[in-house]
Amino acid sequence: MTGTPSGEVPLLFSGPDAPSESDLYKCVHCGFCLQACPTYLETGLETESPRGRISLMKAVNEGRVGLTDGVIRHWELCIQCRACEVACPSGVPYGRLIEATMAQVETKRKLGLIPRIVSDISLRRLLPHQSRLGMAVGALRLYQTSGLQRAVRKSGLLRALSGQLAEMEESLPAIPGTTFRATGQVIPARGEVRARVALLSGCVMPLVHGPQMHAITRVLARNGCEVVVPKAQVCCGALNSHVGDLETARNLARRNIDAFLDSGVEAIVVASAGCGSRMKEYGHLLREDLDYAEKAGRLSAMTRDIHEFLVALPFEAPSGTLDYRVAYQDSCHLSSAQRITQPPRDLLQSIPGVEFVELPRASVCCGAGGTYTLTERDFSLRLLDSKMNDVEETRADVVATANPGCLLQLQYGAAKRGLPIDMRYVVELLDEAYRAEDRQ
Amino acid sequence: MTDQNSLITELKAIVGDTYVVHEPDDLIVYEYDGSVDKGLPLAVVLPDSAQDVSLVVNAARTHRAPIVARGAGTGLSGGAVASEGGIVIALTRMTRILEVDVENRIAVVEPGLVNLELSNAVSGHGLYFAPDPSSQKVCTIGGNVAENAGGPHCLAYGVTTNHVLGMEVVLADGSIQWLGDRTRESTGYDLRGVLVGSEGTLAIVTKVILRLLKKPEAVKTLLAVFKELDDASAAVSGIIGAGIVPAALEMMDDLCIEAAEASVHAGYPDGAGAVLLVEVDGLSEAVEEESEEIQRICRQFGPMEIRTATDAGERERLWAGRKGVLGALGRLAPNYYLVDGTIPRTKLVEVLARIKEMSVESGFPIANLLHAGDGNLHPSVLFDERKPGDTKKALEIGGRILELCVEVGGVLSGEHGIGLEKQEYMPLMFSEADMNAMARLKPAFATGDLFNPGKVFPTGASCADVFQAAVSKVGPGAWI
Amino acid sequence: MVERVFQRPADALGEITNHNDAYSIDGLQPTAVCLSDLQGLSDALSEAAKDGLAVAPWGGGTRAAIGNRPARLDRILDLSRLSRIVHYNPADLTATVEAGISVAELQRHLAEQGQFLAIDPPLPDRATVGGTLAVGGSGPTKWQFGHPRDLVLGMKVVQADGTVVSSGGQVVKNVSGYDMARLHVGGLGTLGVIAEVSFKLTPLPQGEATLVAAFDSTTRCLAAGLAVFHSVVTPLALAAYDAAVDERAHVAPVKGHHLLAVRLGGRPLTLQRALRECRSLCHQGGATTVEALGEADAVAAWRKLADFGWDEATAPLMSARASVPPTKLAEIVETIANGDSPAALRCETLCHVGYGTALIHWFADGPEPPTHAIAEVATRARKAVHAVGGRMNIERCPLPVKAGLDMWDQVGEPIAIMRRLKEQYDPGNVLNPGRFVGGI
Ligand SMILES: Cc1cc2nc3c(=O)[nH]c(=O)nc-3n(C[C@H](O)[C@H](O)[C@H](O)COP(=O)(O)OP(=O)(O)OC[C@H]3O[C@@H](n4cnc5c(N)ncnc54)[C@H](O)[C@@H]3O)c2cc1C
Ligand code: SF4
Ligand code: SF4
């Protein structure tokens, strides 16, 4: 069979993390998910579609095929954007299925050199450890600001070594000087206290988007929220489960539960869509953990996406004006995994002066998808290209989104085409509007 | 084996390596469509042009491999299943809208284009493509043409065949020909007309010229709730009898209502026995006058409640119960077998009563949702496949319902086609001579049994065999 | 002179009349047999097949001259007594009728129940349902209700060997088996004799009104017609005709260079609104007068428009039916009717605007021009139609012209399929040999 060296026994799904049969056989292969799937839209291939991926899971489950490289390849190409889940009339929990499937694959995967290094270094060694990640990002910043980056780019050294490396290097985000650190700090509410919340700082955002994290706390405070940022919190584990490393993901989840659950808040606010969706599913992740299952469920129930939270609060519309034409790109983990599409749009449209335009196919993934942009470079860029075509069509000055991965991906897309379009977080724009009102 | 390899090499030379799927593991994802039928192809090819299709057809013919065309694979009668192996030509890369002629209200499109994408694309011009199968977000124009797909709004505006002016096809000899053109009348035999609904057995469609309609000025949706199914049926007859042809006229029975109420909280009153959904569109005056009249007719039959809506959001809410009903049925039983048949509208009361009898006798609940305006029934037999023997019984009831449809002057399928699912039932409706006349289209198109062999016509297997191992075929959150 | 040919009980026998002038087609004078039931028709056909006779089905004889001159013709099958209404269920809006019933008689029955069949061929008192379908012709009401083939639900056909076959059904939505009826509508009885048809019926509109607008130019008139086509109003019929047509047929008491007739239907307020819209569209389009006709005038006007070119009073020397994209009508009317002509013929046109049909009639004011000149007129007209992507069939012309001119426009490569269809269904070439496209 494909990709299986002769003699090797094909692996079947096994163990507690195998995709559940009741989830799998909910799929009646009606095909309603096809048009939601970015990889299918890009290729027209059923092998790269949700229905196809599920039928391969079924086939492995039934022992019709083994866990061959060929089969695995189709799952790897899945961005895990979960748009298919929204489209499915049968309620197939695709996110859960692919997560369980990738966990099965983990032991068997034969990654190419670069994806392996990336996943190994970043996922196992860096992300779980804020300090190490901090150092790495610090080094990256040094690299960017010291002139070394320019020298390297100019030398063409990377390109000569590997086109792929060079491309990846080019898409590295510009690291700002300001970072955000979770130190157990409490940010007081402005005016009357309306709510006490805890904030997930996350792993990537505070380093890459430090100023934006500060903006987020300002927006919460401006709306009467006292914000706690527990020191003991860690990365949410989303990227680990993405590639099937459920063990690390579970460890991280337990640590976060310990860090957040006793912070005495009404809600845990999460500004990154990917982290929010992960935390909302801690309950499922730890369902077999006798000590943590119940706590995990409670934590999931307390988790709120920032846009969702602000709209429900309800937030105060700013009076400061921003003169932008703004489009919104749905972050998959917000729109599909958390089914939140209207609140970010409401926030944007509440800002005086903002001319809101709908981005065509806003709900189709931009190709960022966690580590996808690194591990599936070619495909990620194809998707980005389609996305940027749509972005150009809107003639927007600003494209807002709700997740660091999306933001970086879009920024790279704009830079690649030399487009003068600003990529911003929704809440960051809200903050700008509040600050404008302060100035008035 | 070497022969197969050389075929694959040839195919790759035509469309490139990426677009020939032939590894056994990969082919698994092409063994099904939206139906219960399965069959593994030898290879799947994704052509990018009519020329590609033509070359693939030539290669397949030389190697004596049958060809199955495939759109989105949402068909409910197994049309896109490679039941005899061979090559699947998937048209999912040919998705371009080649031309929109706004003045003449014509669009020229490739067959892989998704139905709703066309309406979306021309919406800015105030136009739309009328056939709206419930699967319109994913099913392709090519699939619509092959199945002559319909939808709830086909009552007033007609099914696919009424909207296809012409098409480019690839015949079994590999030649690329145009049947029909941009005009409304054709010269010679209406080959375009027989090709529509021929379920991929006569030719591969590579371009389609479609009529577009202008969007109506106003739309109004009415929802009427009745205590008794008979009253709702009588209201349907009353509406049709009053000379109103609504854009849509849908109905569902108490079981559907119960399920919908539990899942989408549609807010139907207690004890509701039937819900009628009527949509009228056109000039705003026409919409007002007709909706007045429809309400007057409904009131004659003692409705428990009538609701109306004109803005899009409100209308969507009225439709919610109807559209959510399949998903909701899952709450009543783990599986359902959805039957598709059409009866004369006037037999509605009789047929529904007899379906009820079957349900009482067999102990299997049967929920009825209907495109009542055109007599298209979708009774769903509820069952639990985990109970031994129940699947088979449910399928047998389905078969009896089909027999009943034919007995009262109706037909085997209103919109899902014959394919593999109902081929053994064809003799219920057609004599040997009738079917022989149909079968002669194949030699006339000189297909040599290249295209979709083994479908539509009976093979002599018993119906029960065909219906084995069925599970609920349609996603419960989909609506039919 | 009457011959008996069938060994069947006397009451079911058809009568054969010899050399009856009334049944002549293109100067050929075959024998005729008048049939009154399906069995008789079937017997007559199998008999003919056995004897190698060429037969032509005959309805009301209103368009007996359509098509090329028969290659052979031995016997007419007169179906006018095969005229029962087999089944009429007003509440279902469906009816099944035998093919020989005249359209007018059927309409009378239907009208009693407030319904009609949306086909309006010329001379409906004589034109039969079967004949109308076989020539595929209808009148102005196809504007809203489509081609007659779209009204056929099912059909019983007697094949050349006498076999009776059915297709379709009696219900309005049906996808069971191939849609065979499509081959026979417009098939000129060359593949089988239409014996019984199930139709979809339409409720008569509650109220009707007809507007006639006069324009001082053809272009303006047709442009106004297109404006109605593109407006929110959906007329029942929309016809444009020139002054000469009006002079000849006295269509309506409104005079002008080119006239537009709009037939509207609906409930009172709808009708008022539609009238208002159409009036203003005509005025905007430069109409010199716009008048609503009284009921009697309206009925007469539409009757005359449907009959034009087919009744005694308006019989032209030659007529053609051109089908073009709607926007091209003005162009071909201008080139054909108003361009210079190789023969002294007067060209008069009647167009179904929006549908794209132009009925072109040529009249000889003086003596009949030479055959080749008439043929040249037709050929040039056809060229003009081809230039705008349309097709033109000649429906009537002097017999000698038929010898050198194909009445049917070219059908291109699919002629091979059409020939094979003929071989499949009528291998002995019994049915109407030589009259159809490509010598079929
Ligand atoms: C939940 C659900 C709801 C549905 N609702 C409706 C409904 O309301 N009304 C309705 O009519 N149907 C409905 N269907 C059935 C189905 O969606 C339609 O039959 C649709 O037209 C199939 O399109 P497809 O692109 O999926 O075709 P496929 O399933 O891929 O193919 C269908 C047939 O078309 C042939 N074919 C496809 N493309 C071509 C081509 N280019 N040339 C020649 N042959 C071709 C195939 O060989 C096959 O025989 C529903 C299906 C589902 C799953
Ligand atoms: S998660 Fe996204 S990429 Fe993966 S199958 Fe679903 S829609 Fe496709
Ligand atoms: S929509 Fe759901 S049920 Fe249908 S094929 Fe996709 S995952 Fe399966």
Radius of gyration of chain C using CA atoms only: 22 Å
Instruction: Give the radius of gyration of chain A.
Output: 21 Å
Q: Roughly how much helix do the residues of chain A carry, as a percent range?
A: 40-55%
Describe the largest sheet of chain A: 5 strands, mixed
Largest binding interface between chains: B-C, 91 and 89 residues
Sheet/helix structural class of chain A: alpha/beta
Indicate the mean pLDDT of chain C. 91
Biggest sheet layout of chain C: 8 strands, antiparallel
Q: Helix share of residues of chain C?
A: 25-40%
> What proportion strand of chain C?
15-25%
- Under CATH, the topology of the largest domain in chain A can be stated as Glutathione S-transferase Yfyf (Class Pi), Chain A, domain 2
Task: Tell me the number of strands of chain C.
Answer: 20
* Inertia-based shape of chain A: globular
Instruction: Tell me the count of domains of chain C.
Output: 4
Total strands of chain A: the figure is: 9
Poorly predicted segments of chain A:
1-10, 157-161
Total helices of chain A: the number is: 25
User: Helical stretch count of chain C?
Assistant: 13
Strand order of the largest sheet of chain C: 16-13-15-14-18-19-17-20
Overall form of chain C: globular
Give an overview of the whole structure.
The complex is a heterotrimer of chains A (440), B (480) and C (440). Chain A has helices at residues 21-24, 38-43, 50-61, 69-76, 83-87, 94-106, 113-126, 130-145, 148-155, 157-161, 163-170, 205-208, 210-222, 238-242, 246-261, 273-280, 282-285, 293-302, 306-312, 332-335, 342-349, 372-375, 377-394, 404-417, 426-439; strands spanning 186-187, 195-199, 225-228, 267-270, 303-305, 325-328, 355-358, 398-401, 422-425. With 440 residues, chain A is of the alpha/beta class. Chain A folds into 4 domains: 21-108, Orthogonal Bundle (Fumarate Reductase Iron-sulfur Protein, Chain B, domain 2), CATH 1.10.1060.10; 113-170, no CATH class; 186-311, Glutathione S-transferase Yfyf (Class Pi), Chain A, domain 2, CATH 1.20.1050; 318-439, Rossmann fold. In chain A, the strands form 2 sheets. Chain A has a 5-stranded mixed sheet with strand order 1-3-2-4-5. In chain A, strands 7-6-8-9 form a 4-stranded parallel sheet, with helices on both faces. The longest helix of chain A is centred in the last third of the chain and has 18 residues, at 377-394. Chain A is globular. Mean pLDDT of chain A is 84; it is low at 1-10 and 157-161. In chain B, α1 runs antiparallel to α3 (50-62), α8 crosses α10 (284-300) and α13 runs antiparallel to α14 (390-407). Among the domains of chain B are: 4-90, Uridine Diphospho-n-acetylenolpyruvylglucosamine Reductase, domain 2, CATH 3.30.43; 97-214, Uridine Diphospho-n-acetylenolpyruvylglucosamine Reductase, domain 3, CATH 3.30.465; 225-324, 2-Layer Sandwich (Alpha-Beta Plaits), CATH 3.30.70. By secondary structure, chain B is α+β, with helices and mostly antiparallel strands. In chain B, β18 and β19 form a beta hairpin. Chain B is globular, with a radius of gyration of 23 Å. Chain C is of the alpha+beta class and 440 residues long. Chain C is built from 13 helices and 20 strands. Chain C has helices at residues 38-51, 103-112, 129-135, 142-145, 181-184, 218-230, 243-249, 268-284, 295-307, 329-338, 371-387, 399-404, 415-425, and strands at 2-3, 15-17, 31-34, 55-58, 75-78, 85-89, 94-98, 115-116, 152-158, 164-168, 193-200, 202-203, 207-215, 237-242, 258-266, 289-292, 318-323, 345-352, 357-364, 391-396. Chain C has an 8-stranded antiparallel sheet, sandwiched between helices. The interface between B and C is large, with 91 and 89 residues. Bound molecules: flavin-adenine dinucleotide and iron/sulfur cluster (2 copies). One iron/sulfur cluster (SF4) binds next to α2, α3 and α5 of chain A.
